[in-house]
Write a structure and sequence with these properties.
The complex is a heterodimer of chains A (309) and B (245).
Chain A: H1 2-24, H2 29-53, H3 62-77, H4 83-105, H5 110-130, E1 140-141, H6 156-179, H7 181-191, H8 193-199, H9 203-229, E2 231-232, H10 239-252, H11 259-277, H12 281-295
Antiparallel strand pairs in A: 1-2
Chain B: E1 2-11, E2 14-24, E3 29-33, H1 40-48, E4 55-60, E5 63-64, H2 70-76, E6 78-81, H3 93-103, H4 119-132, H5 147-160, E7 165-169, H6 177-190, E8 195-199, H7 203-209, E9 212-217, E10 220-225, H8 227-232, H9 234-239
Parallel strand pairs in B: 3-8, 3-9, 6-7, 7-8
Antiparallel strand pairs in B: 1-2, 1-4, 4-5, 9-10
Classes of the chains: A mainly alpha (309), B alpha/beta (245).
């Protein structure tokens, strides 16, 4: 436990020290890269809540990246640049859509759940393509980043620290949830549903609530992502995006606090490294991912895992 | 307290439960015995709400609960242990039992406070663990416990819900002689204070614990009587006890 806290402190210290360091060596590109990684880490943390702790294999989590992105993009399109409004709508709309998708899908399990979540996300993806007004297939450029008093997202360093803060908050928030009464019900239902029902839990409302929380959190990641890219496109919701986020969770370690963060860093940094070497980087990444899943049964976080009793 | 009338369940052509009538009185221990495949687990599953009967009714304290799902039955005071161990393997013994306490402590939409230090949950959970003899093992992960301990843990989880009716599906299954004796004395200590429906193969246990015995053969109850009379019953001896006697 203690060693894990030390690792966290070191990681946070490193991430705080990064901007002045990369600016000093004249490589601001890395700021951009790590900011993007941390945004995806938030998405992965949110997915881990339902996938890792809840056992709900959602193959449509990118839907909320899209909804968060579209909320910011569309409001900006009509001249509403107020960040509180944009991000509030991003989170609220994601929660609403998650409630609707969840109400239908959470009752099912296994392959049906995977397929339904995938199908809903594909629907939203094609809806995005059909919205010609907002760029349709090509997407559209943001007129301006979300505007907050005192915080200027146009400043890459400020934006970086904001994303870092949100990522750490997401980690802490999830950590609290999964150890609360609510989290215990969620994890118990994943571990042994028959047992849960026998002692008096109906898992459905708890799973649905977790699904909504995860959707809302990922909606925030979507709002961050569209500000990061300055560009809104339906690709936010493409099924490969859902797969990518899912892979971060699995690679990093399901049902662990640090797992999704490790997974996001590992996947996106390796991807960046390989794509710098060769155009066919996916040919190398694929086998690497397979090997990592075979050798790290508990994900990368499993390297720090010590069996309790 | 429990009235079962005309309960019937078929799997294809097989009548696993065939027009079963049974009554369980408050405070008594009713044992259900019968050869393998007689439909004992099928019957328990219908009582617990895991399986829906094709016909018949189950009334509990005067209320028809035939179609009530398992979680709601639990909240009415049913508790079940499973024939095949069913615990939460990745949780400690304490966490397993605390979850059972939590299930009966109002809703669980509480998102912030950790359950680990929550005395409202761990207090009763520790007491029940002491009661079943697992007090010293409360911080062990269930996956690392022995088979006998799993059975004790199942009973602990059932007790933690403060049940009015205990449905125990072969609590002695797969136990060694010593473990069985421990379990029998544990159940004997619960007897009287709880209403118990016990499915069991171990005749020693059945005759020591049961106030009445129902004999199930091919899904039918062929006799329900006191242990002494069941021992003497010709039909029962032929169908079941004869194999061992």
């Amino acid at each position: 436990m203690k060693s894990r806290i030390i690792l966290w402190i070191l990681t946070v210290a490193l991430l705080i020290a990064l901007p002045p360091a990369v600016l000093a060596i004249g490589q601001p590109f890395y700021l951009d890269l790590v900011r993007r990684v941390m945004i995806f880490a938030i998405a992965a943390i949110s997915l881990n809540l339902i996938l890792g702790y809840g056992g709900l294999v959602s193959f449509g989590h990118a839907a909320y990246l899209g909804i968060g992105g579209y909320a910011v993009g569309i409001l900006g399109f009509y001249g509403f640049h107020n960040g509180w409004l944009q991000w509030g709508v991003a989170i609220g709309a994601s929660a609403l859509v998650a409630a609707a998708i969840g109400a239908v899908s959470v009752r099912t399990s296994g392959i049906y759940f995977i397929m339904i979540t995938l199908a809903f996300t594909q629907m939203l993806y094609y809806l995005g393509i059909s919205l010609e007004e907002y760029g349709g297939d090509d997407g559209m450029r943001l007129k301006a980043r979300s505007q907050f008093p005192l915080i200027d997202l146009g400043d890459p360093v400020v934006f970086y620290y904001l994303v870092l803060a949100f990522m750490l908050l997401s980690v802490y928030f999830t950590y609290r949830i999964v150890n609360s009464r609510f989290g215990m019900v969620l994890r118990a239902a994943k571990s042994n549903e028959a047992r849960s029902r026998a002692i008096g839990f109906s898992p459905y409302p708890y799973r649905l609530a977790a699904f909504v929380i995860a959707g809302a959190m990922c909606g925030l990641a979507g709002a961050l992502l569209v500000n990061h890219t300055n560009y809104l496109t339906p690709d936010f919701m493409h099924w490969t995006r859902s797969g990518e986020v899912m892979f971060m969770v699995i690679l990093g370690g399901m049902a662990s606090t640090a797992g999704p963060v490790l997974g996001a860093f590992a996947l996106l940094l390796v991807e960046d490294l390989l794509s710098g070497w060769t155009e066919h980087w996916q040919v190398i990444l694929g086998p690497l991912l397979i090997l990592s899943v075979v050798f790290f049964r508990r994900g990368l976080a499993g390297m720090f895992y010590k069996p309790d009793a | 307290m429990l009235e079962i009338r005309g309960l019937t369940k078929s799997f294809g052509a097989l009548r696993a439960t065939d027009a079963v009538d049974l009554d369980v009185q408050e405070g008594e221990t009713l044992a259900i015995i019968g050869p393998n495949g007689a439909g004992k687990t099928t019957l328990i599953s219908q009582l617990a709400g895991n399986l829906r009967p094709d016909a018949g009714t189950i009334r509990f304290a005067g209320e028809d609960i035939t179609r009530l799902p398992a979680p709601k039955r639990s909240r009415k005071g049913f508790a079940r242990s499973f024939q095949i161990t069913s615990v939460y393997p990745d949780f400690t013994a304490l966490e397993n039992v605390a979850l059972a306490v939590q299930a009966h402590a109002g809703h669980s939409f509480r998102f912030w406070r950790p359950t680990r230090g929550d005395a409202a949950l761990t207090g009763p959970a520790r007491r029940v663990l002491e009661e079943v003899g697992l007090g010293a093992r409360s911080d062990v992960l269930a996956v690392n416990m022995s088979h006998g301990e799993h059975r004790q843990l199942e009973v602990a989880m059932a007790l933690a819900t403060r049940p009015r009716l205990l449905l125990l599906d072969e609590p002695m299954a797969g136990m060694g002689i010593e473990e069985s004796q421990l379990m029998i004395s544990l159940l004997a200590s619960l007897k009287g204070g709880h209403t118990i429906v016990l499915v069991e193969h171990d005749m020693d246990a059945v005759f020591r614990l049961a106030d009445r015995i129902a004999v199930l053969v091919y899904g039918r109850v062929i006799a329900t009587d006191s242990p002494e009379k069941i021992k003497m019953n010709e039909e029962v001896r032929k169908a079941y006890l004869g194999e061992e006697a």
